[in-house]
Write a structure and sequence with these properties.
Two copies of one chain form a homodimer. By secondary structure, chain A is of the alpha/beta class. The first copy, chain A, is 43% helix and 17% strand. The first copy, chain A, is built from eight helices and seven strands, in the order αβαβαβαββααβαβα. Chains A and B meet through helix 1 and helix 5 of A and helix 1 and helix 5 of B.
Chain lengths: 231, 231
């Protein structure tokens, strides 16, 4: 890349970072836990999120925004859960930016939410640089993508808080080598947390939901402690 | 995107287009047919290309370059075919650019080649804007990605010459709706040619190879006619 475009890109990224920091403060003040789901195209973000929303909704107030270049397909699928959903259309853009999320949620009262899920554009490279103010960045791999993606696409795994391996129900059919995949994940990002699920069969979803609830409670507790300490 | 970054990006793209045009002239002069393979991560570009190289090599002189952010895994896999292969490491870049290809092939005598294959970075968005001087842009979808990717990622399909649906051996296991997928492909890009293959099982590879050979012969014939007309 030319020094010129690097320079301009860095200014844009810096602006995004500042905006995302402000959003993170707003999310914290409202007590909403924000999850950014990233993966390549077709790894199963929408299916996992639809099931997650359905499972959480009886006990938690949830909403979702979803980014795609075109179509409202994913928003329609997510809305079947009963949660409020907004589609962000990015046109030719390969990732979501903080300002797109800010505009999409502008009409929502964040204090009325426990969880806000952001489903990013399907892309294993570009979303890595764009902070959306989230509390948790979840990177989804699908067994159908093969075992070596963590090594070949290092930028996104470097910024992820947890790696979820999806479509485990297809592992045998595609000859997926789970041990090799897990070794590659740990080689790319030593110590990163991992979960194995099948959004379709339901395998591992209990652990996934427990993880989300735990992270949500942790944030609430630390906010409560801070407010007690300040009182 | 800010007007400033759009402006700088357009200048970079224009420079890439000029370089690609020059490369296309060089490829034509040398009589090499150049194929740019694009898809999301894990759709099976490397597997299809390895089998393609092995099948063509007895009768055609082939070489390949492959782009990844990190690792030489794909170059190693492709080299098992016996073809000369160069790995391009893009670092944090989400696509190949003409200049990366130019540098990678600098040591090769193009006149000694019939086919040059370029395997792009796995990304369904970004490679669309970057002309590599190729004769043929092949867009690969995998049945494991679902039926709606042609609609959700329109930019790449708009620039593709042919759409190849891969992993057909897994269609039943993932409940792939072929008719819906084909309708979506035609809706996104009316009239575009399509093929259905399984690089793993070998299904459809005969048609794929016949298509490549036909396109190669077409280019040779039209070059011969031009040179006769000019004589």
């Amino acid at each position: 890349m030319s020094p010129r475009i690097v320079q301009v890109r860095e200014r844009i990224l810096k602006h995004n970072d500042e905006l995302a920091r402000g959003m993170r403060r707003d999310f914290a003040a409202a007590g909403v836990f924000v999850v950014n789901l990233v993966s390549g195209p077709g790894a199963g973000k929408t299916e996992l999120l639809t099931r997650t929303l359905s499972a959480l909704l009886p006990d938690y107030r949830c909403a979702a925004v979803v980014g795609d270049l075109a179509t409202e397909n994913d928003a329609r699928r997510l809305a079947t859960s009963g949660a409020p959903v907004k589609q962000i259309l990015t046109g030719t853009m390969c990732h979501l930016e903080a300002d797109m999320v800010r505009q999409a949620i502008a009409g929502w009262d964040l204090a009325e939410l426990d969880f806000l899920f952001i489903e990013n554009v399907g892309n294993l490279v570009c979303p890595s640089s764009w902070d959306l103010g989230e509390d948790l960045r979840v990177l989804l791999f699908a067994v159908t993508e093969g075992e070596d993606k963590p090594l070949k696409y290092p930028t996104l795994i470097h910024t992820a808080d947890i790696v979820v391996v999806n479509k485990m129900d297809l592992a045998a059919a595609v000859g997926f080598d789970l041990e090799a995949a897990m070794n590659n994940i740990q080689a790319a990002r030593p110590g990163v947390e991992t979960l194995r699920v099948s959004a379709r069969s339901g395998m591992g979803l209990e652990q996934w939901l427990a993880y989300l609830k735990h992270r949500f409670a942790e944030k609430r507790d630390s906010a409560a402690q801070l407010s007690t300490a300040g009182a």
